[in-house]
Design goal:
- With 136 residues, the protein is an all-alpha fold.
- The protein has one domain.
- 85% of the residues lie in helices and 0% in strands.
- It contains five helices and no strands.
- α1 packs antiparallel against α3 (45-71), α1 runs parallel beside α4 (76-98) and α3 runs parallel beside α5 (103-135).
- The chain is elongated and about 60 Å long.
- Its main location: membrane.
């Protein structure tokens, strides 16, 4: 029904979209953080740092997923899971930015939707490195 190449292209497109959203927000985070605070209170430095760390971890996870799919073509199931996960994450990411959600919602998004596919990619990388180490 689905081939590895079909699902891989969609997986790649979803990763690219998610990465683009995180990149755009990381360079325009001040406006978002100020909009998410009620009452015109100045943005705390901890909120800026937390938001930046969350976005950087999201981008790092996506880069690791890119490397993993370059080294080994993922299975159809993994591609479909990651595609749906990153699509939902990107849509919620956009909604959270538009509605000026607090920083904690971005952490929840990272843990629930980005981390599972990141860990699958990380396991794949460890398996590839371990397999190549045994051959060499």
């Amino acid at each position: 029904m689905f081939t590895r190449v079909d699902t891989l292209t969609k997986y790649y497109q979803c990763l690219l979209g998610h990465f683009a959203m995180a990149t755009i927000v990381i360079f325009d985070q001040t406006a978002h953080l100020e909009a998410s605070i009620i009452g015109g209170i100045p943005v705390a430095e901890e909120a800026r740092i937390g938001f930046t760390v969350c976005l950087v971890l999201t981008m790092l996870g996506i880069i690791i997923e890119f490397v993993s799919i370059v080294l080994e073509m993922p299975s159809v199931v993994r591609s479909l899971f990651a595609t749906s996960s990153h699509t939902i994450a990107t849509c919620l990411f956009l909604l959270f930015i538009y509605d000026a959600h607090p920083v904690s919602h971005f952490w929840i998004l990272l843990v629930l939707l980005s981390a599972p596919s990141f860990f699958l990619a990380l396991l794949s990388l460890f398996r590839i490195v371990g397999h190549r180490g045994k051959q060499g």
